[in-house]
Write a sequence for this structure.
């Protein structure tokens, strides 16, 4: 089932495939539009290709076939286009990917490094960047932790710092790979609410990968179901039923494992 809504796409994947060096095909002929302002989730079993899909959209895992184009920029195979795309694309990771010895504020400021040359980044960043980072810290409710090393924060607080680090890029797109997988239910709801509200307020498109079907239905306005590297469902949560879920997870059980 494919979503036929043709909104204003910020990223367009056309027949994208990823085959790893060991011959494993992680994505197969993915055609997908990520539309401005939508809050979408990718569902699927472990190994369905969710992480590969998110990494491919940012060329952390380049596709081995097909094209990815970005509105207003062009084809991501162009290094200049890719650099600009990464500037305006925030990444949020399951394991946070923070520098543990750095303070919360220092970690958030790393989100501004792509806007400066290597040599400029060796100096303290401009005051405008620091004010922006503090504003992002305020928005995730952790201003009182600005100078606290992140190794002293809880898992939920670390993920909120990760959101602030992505937000300080002033992105047009957020990619979040299993952002609540390691959190308790209360922290998970807080992170999902925060991420959704920020994206809605700022008009940021978001694509998340999740395992939790209930969270996907509660928070997202579009669900993309992946199995053995192919899209087998794409639509609003209201039409996702038990038959669709059986297809997503049963198809994956019968398939070869993907990353």
């Amino acid at each position: 089932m494919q979503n036929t809504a043709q909104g204003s796409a910020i990223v367009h994947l056309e027949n994208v495939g990823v085959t790893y060096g060991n011959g494993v095909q992680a994505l197969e002929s993915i055609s997908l539009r990520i539309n401005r302002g939508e809050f979408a989730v990718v569902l699927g079993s472990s190994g369905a290709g969710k992480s590969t899909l998110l990494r491919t959209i940012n060329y952390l895992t380049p596709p081995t076939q097909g094209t990815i184009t970005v509105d207003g920029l062009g084809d991501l195979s162009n290094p200049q286009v890719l650099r600009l795309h990464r500037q305006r694309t925030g990444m949020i990771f399951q394991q946070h990917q923070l520098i543990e010895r750095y303070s919360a504020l220092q970690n958030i400021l790393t989100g501004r490094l792509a806007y400066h040359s290597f040599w400029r980044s060796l100096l303290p960043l401009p005051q405008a960047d620091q004010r922006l980072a503090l504003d992002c810290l305020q928005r995730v409710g952790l201003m009182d932790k600005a100078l606290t090393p992140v190794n002293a924060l809880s898992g939920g607080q670390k993920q909120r710092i990760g959101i602030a680090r992505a937000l300080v890029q002033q992105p047009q797109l957020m990619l979040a790979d299993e952002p609540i997988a390691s959190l308790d239910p209360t922290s998970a709801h807080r992170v999902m609410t925060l991420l959704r509200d920020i994206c809605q307020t700022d008009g940021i498109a978001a694509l998340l990968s999740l395992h939790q079907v209930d969270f996907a239905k509660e928070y997202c306005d579009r669900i993309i179901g992946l199995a053995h590297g192919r899209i087998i469902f794409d639509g609003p949560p209201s039409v996702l039923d038990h038959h669709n879920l059986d297809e997503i997870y049963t198809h994956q059980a019968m398939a070869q494992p993907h990353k």
Residues 1-88+174-259 form a domain with the Rossmann fold fold (CATH 3.40.50.300). The longest helix spans residues 185-202. The chain has nine helices and ten strands. The chain has two domains: 1-88+174-259, 99-170.
